[in-house]
Specification:
By secondary structure, the chain is α+β, with helices and mostly antiparallel strands. 36% of the residues lie in helices and 24% in strands.
């Protein structure tokens, strides 16, 4: 565990996180980071969250997108 301030920061399992990095989303979904970048570059992508220049994947909406997709 890493000490952060007065408390400790726990390692949270990927399936419990609300937002994922590209690397976490790739490990979670078995979709490559290149393909995830391509999909999330679209302005119409509903499961991407930009924090400055950092790209995060909204896990619940990403799950829904995968369930509704036939091919990626």
């Amino acid at each position: 565990m890493t000490e952060r301030g007065k408390g400790y920061m726990k390692d949270i399992p990927i399936w419990e996180k609300s937002n994922l990095t590209l690397e976490e989303a790739a490990a979670y979904s078995s979709i490559g980071t290149g393909k995830l970048r391509e999909i999330t570059n679209s302005e119409n992508c509903k499961f991407v969250l930009w924090v400055g220049s950092k790209r995060l994947i909204k896990r619940r909406l990403f799950d829904q997108y995968i369930e509704e997709s036939y091919s990626i």
